[in-house]
Amino acid sequence: MLVDQDVLVDAGTGVADLSIAELAMIDHVFLTHTHLDHIASLPLMVDTVGDRRSQPLTVYGTEAVLTILRNHIFNWAIWPDFSEIPTADKPFMRFQTIELGQTVKLGGRQLTPLPVEHTVPAVGYQIDSGQASLVFSGDTGICDGFWKAVNKVRNLKHLIVECAFSNREERLAIVSRHLCPSMLATELQKLERQCEIHITHLKPGQIELTMEEIEDCLGSFKPKMLQNNQIFEF
After folding, report:
1. pLDDT tens, 141-183?
2. Topology of domain 1-98, per CATH?
3. What sign does the CA torsion over 163, 164, 165, 171 have?
4. Around Cβ 140, how many Cβ atoms within 10 Å?
5. pTM over 0.90
6. Bridge-based pairing state of the strands 156-162 and 133-136
């Protein structure tokens, strides 16, 4: 998810849709977690535009998330450690540790990591423009803490929430700490704010079935499927 032209939330394969010039404009990457579909483009992005930038790309994540990145991705065995090259004093990338509830201010924007439940350390994000907020769940299963945090967002306008599986794979959703429509319906009963709801992380091959089930379970919430290249103004 690209925020303005300079902030990226996660760095999955969709980043490849951006031009080199657009990639070079990104100064900040906020990661929800380290599963491949959320970080796949990050190593390639740094390699591609590092020498086109005048300052390091800042990668934000919790200590657990950044530790996984250091140990398993930017470890010289899988990919070079761009926090050390071309030099340790002037690297292409730097890591910035964040904590749950800690707001990062970038100009007039504020990004705050929110609690979620997944199979690896993970967070969601509140993005506050100063006028309104968008909340992105990232990957999560059942999580009371997430909804408590969302309910504190007084200027909530958009909620992007995952629903990875159809109801026939509810057991898999539970084991992998994702949501299916019946589970999402239960979770949304905890929502105390009025907002537009957008569904993401639908599994290919099950999109139509899952959206039909969402309509059956959640029609009163009027959820919409998140679209590629969709633009939110808030």
Report:
1. 999 999 999 999 999 999 999 999 999 999 999 999 999 999 9
2. Metallo-beta-lactamase; Chain A (3.60.15)
3. negative
4. 26
5. yes
6. parallel
